Amino acid sequence: MSDMPPVAKKVPVERTHHGDTVVDDYAWLFSKDDPDTISHLEAENAYTQGMTGHLKDLQETVFQEIKSRTLETDLSVPSRKGAWWYYSRTEEGKQYGIQCRVAVDGDTPPELTPGVPLPGEQVLLDGNELAGDSAFFSIGTSAISPDGTKLAYSTDFTGDERFTLRFKNLDTGELLPDEIPGVFYGGAWSADGSTFFYSTIDEAWRPYRIHRHTLGSDDDVLVYQEDDERFWVGIGLTRSQRYLIVSAGSKITSEIRVLDADDPTGEFKVVRPRRTGVEYGLDHAGDRFLVLHNDGAVNFELATAPLDDPATWTPLIEHRDDVRLLDVDAFKDHVVVHFRRDGLSGIRILPGDGRDPYEISFPEPIYDVAPSGNAEFETDRLRLGYTSMITPTSVYDYDLRTNELILLKQKTVLGGYDPADYEQFRAWAPAEDGTKVPISIVARKGTNRPAPTLLYGYGSYETSIDPYFSVARLSLLDRGFVFAVAHVRGGGEMGRHWYEDGKLNKKKNTFTDFVACARHLRADGWSSQIIARGGSAGGLLMGAVANLAPEEFAGIVAEVPFVDALNTILDPSLPLTVIEWDEWGDPLHDPEVYAYMKSYSPYENVDSRPYPPILAITSLNDTRVLYHEPAKWVARLRESAQGGPFLLKTEMGAGHGGRSGRYDAWREEAFTLSWILDRVGVTE
Questions:
Q1: Which letter does DSSP use for residue 458 in this model?
Q2: Considering just the CA atoms, what is the radius of gyration of the chain in Å?
Q3: Short name of one Pfam family for this protein (predicted)?
Q4: Can 536 be counted among the known catalytic residues?
Q5: Annotated active-site residue in 368, 656, 660, 674
Q6: Beta 84-90 vs 243-249: how paired, if at all?
């Protein structure tokens, strides 16, 4: 341990782009194999440990609060697929879930009792057995063959998201000899279960190839390769299990190929050739395809297409400026549309019996709902996941015959949690240009205001941070905190326009929106001291607002933060860079993009003003936001800025999502929450 901050050595590296010459003193930290890099990260960990040592008791208290509120032996609601109900369960003291199934006996999901296996239960995968003594473990794929007799699954033991694919005979429990290393997430079976399709990645961590594996054979066949470096590829099976779908997509463009799942050695056929800026997705519904697309429809339109002519699209739900169509799920006798309106998600049912379409209503002012776990094609029930800031994650079945919403399970929160003790609100902050930015807020009733506040933000890739419940968050709320989510532009909360107004040459709207939300919370009497928190692209937001308005925040938590954005996006050899040009712009070839990104990239813009205390958290094996970004950022903060302290915590054996086991993850969250509490003087 050390009470003196590490001083990173300077090794000047000069680069010139578009006539601009920049010296990067900390580029050497990129070298993961350099012993000096590892020594520096270990020194940073020791310093962070020393600077947070006084919080050890608080960390343990918060960890025990999270643990004591969690039903450690628990299980999911079974979902039907074919002749089986599938579910997962957890056991007290074990880090990972256990995937199981039981045979179907009637249409109603079997009632499960935590800790009591059902008669006839078959364990498919036990994550604890698979993980063994490994410090990290993750499952990337878990796919049951259409006939229910085989399981394809993949595992990762380092966090680099490169998985090894294995196969299991579920009739005998036998692990088949087939083993394929270096695969990506996902995969799909042929209709007869003889063949499995999977994807692999290139050196830039881009899934670009689809392979066909015949069980018992070592001669896998490459069926598709995507050479455009802006595009990812994936493979899936329609819910009807009639068609295999190969999807190629950049940030702004899609191209889909289909193949009859009964003909796995056949040729995939293009639905519509790619056209820049046109995105579309496809599902199979009986005698037609359903196509969700944005061709002339910025918020997307739902169309139908003949099976023998999938390129001909006829509108079914036409485009609306105030409704963003998110997804469509096809079933034998109905269609389900997931949409977004007025900053909230919703569900629309299109009955197949001639009745008018209708929406499912929910009583809370802010919430999030989505179809979830609907594997069965022929069903009269729709499975939904629902949550809000005060309602724990809930699973409903919606009966399409009776229009009844049936609560199957609500996540148990131990310790006497009562939603009536808390209240949630939607506020609107005026941005610099007059745009109203939504904020979701939750607090314990009776909280004295203005109160210390944790303000969370993301704001990229059209990703929406919808209202959600968190057990760990209760440790803040019960200590008098307000928790808020700033739904800044660049996310998707208010539709596609909201995203478009926070990307490329409008990216700074994301940052100024967040600052506007902080100022509004303070001006409206909600907040006293504000701690900002965000991860990944939300970590870029954290770094940007630290430069933009450091005086607004009492502390900043930046998790796996994308803070060296300009240097990363300038290097096409790095993971994801070329793909990201559609999101951020291409500074390598466009001098205007270069100048714009340089004006906001956190690493480039650290100055000598006082900065709030900053906690940066990263993982050595992260393949999405490389560890060197926060390492360089913290080094520059120490060199140039006043204030702080600036802490870097590197998980030396994990990836983008941090530590994998649930108890380990709870301890990491307890560490972060304790640091947040300490920033505002709440240490008991």
A1: -
A2: 25
A3: Peptidase_S9_N
A4: yes
A5: 656
A6: unpaired
Contact 301, 325 (CB under 8 A): yes
Alpha helices (H) along 115-232: 127-131
Q: Tell whether the model's pLDDT for residue 654 goes beyond 70.
A: no
Query: What are φ and ψ of residue 505, in 5° steps?
Result: -80, 10
Tell me which amino acid residue 399 is. Answer: D
DSSP class of residue 503 equals S
Query: How far apart are the C-alpha atoms of 654 and 670, rounded to whole Å?
Result: 18
Residue with tokens 């800044």: 488
Percent of the chain with pLDDT over 90: 87
Q: Is the pLDDT of residue 419 over 90?
A: yes
Options 388, 475, 536, 660, the catalytic residue = 536
> Cβ–Cβ contacts within 10 Å for residue 523, how many?
12
In tens, the pLDDT along 74-102 reads 888 999 999 999 999 998 899 999 999 99
* CA–CA distance, 243 with 284 (Å, rounded to integer): 8
Closest CA to 477 of 458, 440, 457, 452: 452
Burial (0-12, 13-18, 19+ Cβ within 10 Å), 277: exposed
Instruction: Return d(Cα 483, Cα 451) in angstroms, integer.
Output: 10
Question: Of all helices (H) and strands (E), which one includes residue 639?
Answer: helix 628-640
**H-state helical runs in 227-372:** none
Helix, strand, coil % over all residues of the chain, rounded to 5: 20, 35, 40
* 282 Cα distance to chain centroid: 22
Spatial distance between the Cα atoms of 641 and 102, rounded to a whole number of angstroms: 60
pLDDT of 99:
96
Is residue 133 within 8 A of residue 111, CB to CB? The reply is: no
Residues 6+ apart with CB under 8 A from 203: 573
Handedness of CA 445, 451, 452, 458 (dihedral sign): positive
Tokens encoding 541:
């937001």
The pair phi, psi for residue 485, each rounded to 5°, is -115, 125
- How many CA atoms lie less than 13 Å away from 566 in the CB half-sphere? 27
3-state secondary structure string, 365-401?
CCCEEEECCCCCCCCCEEEEEEECCCCCCEEEEEECC
pLDDT value at position 456?
Answer: 98
Q: Which helix (H) or strand (E) holds 334?
A: strand 334-341
Please give the mean pLDDT across all residues of the chain: 94
Q: Which DSSP letter does residue 520 get?
A: H
pLDDT digits (tens, 9 = 90+) for 107-148: 788 887 888 888 889 999 999 999 999 988 999 999 999 999
pLDDT tens for 315-331 read: 999 999 999 999 999 99
pLDDT at 573: 83
Q: Is the pLDDT of residue 658 over 60?
A: no
Strands 642-643 and 610-611: parallel
Positive or negative CA dihedral for 367, 368, 374, 380?
A: positive
E strand or H helix that includes residue 283 = strand 280-285
* Residue type at 100 in one-letter notation: C
Active-site entry in 397, 564, 586, 622: 622
Could you give the CA distance from residue 431 to residue 157 in angstroms, rounded to a whole number? Answer: 44
Query: Helix, strand or coil for residue 394?
Result: strand
**Helices in 489-548 by DSSP H: which ranges?**
496-500, 508-523, 537-548
Owner of token pair 């056991």: 91
Q: CA nearest 464: which of 437, 490, 426?
A: 490
204 with 193: CB under 8 angstroms? no
User: How much of the chain, in percent, has pLDDT values that exceed 70?
Assistant: 98
Residue 61 has pLDDT above 90, yes or no: yes
